[in-house]
Every structure is written in C-alpha cells, then in structure tokens.
Amino acid sequence: MANKGIEKAEKEAKVSVISYARAWGESPVPPALLATLIAAQHARPPQFLPLLFPPVLLFSTYLNINDYKIDAAGTSAAWSALYLLLARRRKHPLMQKWGTRGIIRGATMGLCVANLLGGGFVYAIGKRSNDPSGKDGAGIV
C-alpha cells in the first residue's frame, strides 16, 4: 500500500520535471534573458567574441515567437553550450567570484546550463508537422 503511494509520487515527480524542462525549452524568454546578461557582461570594455552570442540568441527568441519552437530550442541549446564552453575557460580568483560581476557570471552560466538541458530536451523529442514519418501534429508529441 505504501509502495503504491511512493510509486505515484515518483511518477508525478518525473512528469513534472519533464513538463518543466519542456516548458523551459519552448519559452522565448530564457534566450532573451541570456542574451541580455551576456551583452551586459561583455559590452564594457567591448569583447567581440562573446558579443557574437546575443544576436543569435535573440534570433532564437524570434524563431520561437514565430512558432518554430523546436528549431529555436535547438539553436538556443547549441549556442548556450558554446557560450558555456567559452565562459568556463576564464579563470577568476576566489574573491572576484563573489562580487557583482561574479554573481552575474554565475547566473549567466547557470542559465546556459538550463537552456542547454531544456532546449536540448525539446529538440530531442520534438516532432515537426512536415516530418516524413507520417505522424500528424505540430510541435512536441
């Protein structure tokens, strides 16, 4: 009897984690927020390589608003992973990690991880309506 309750709670937890990842990957807000944080960090003084990321992430938001949710999720996940790799290469002393810039950098990297997981999940399970497999339906199946 207790096992049924535990199994039901585990199943609901799995469904909720999947639904949260799916909602995160389909939302246009996370790539726009990530673009804002990246631009804020690298605009002064201008660092040109990191400033290549915000236009692509804003384009991903544009795709998402125009109902290309799967493509937008894949684009957002890929470019978030690239920025995460770029940002992990920079090393900072311990005292700089807990300042304002360090906290914003940590939030940016955390948002990159969330975009990578959510967008990658949506892209992996996504189904387009013009897919030749014959199944109907647009978006996530």
Topology:
Elements: H1 2-26, H2 29-42, H3 53-65, H4 69-89, H5 94-97, H6 100-125
Helix pairs in contact: 1-6, 2-3, 2-6, 3-4, 4-6
Please tell me the overall pLDDT. 85
The major beta sheet can be summarized as: none
Strand content: under 5%
Structural class: mainly alpha
Shape: flat
Number of strands: 0
Distance separating the two termini:
33 Å
The radius of gyration computed from the alpha-carbon positions, rounded to a whole number of angstroms, is 18 Å
Question: Could you state the order of secondary-structure elements as H and E?
Answer: HHHHHH
The helix tally amounts to 6
Helix content percent band: over 70%
**Low-pLDDT regions:** 134-139
Q: What keywords describe this structure?
A:
mainly alpha; 6 helices; disordered C terminus
Structure write-up:
This protein has 6 helices and no strands. Helices cover 73% and strands 0% of the residues. The radius of gyration is 18 Å and the shape is flat. The protein has 141 residues and is mostly helical. The longest helix has 26 residues, at 100-125. The chain has helices at 2-26, 29-42, 53-65, 69-89, 94-97, 100-125.
Task: Give a brief rundown of this model.
The model is unreliable at 134-139 (pLDDT under 50).
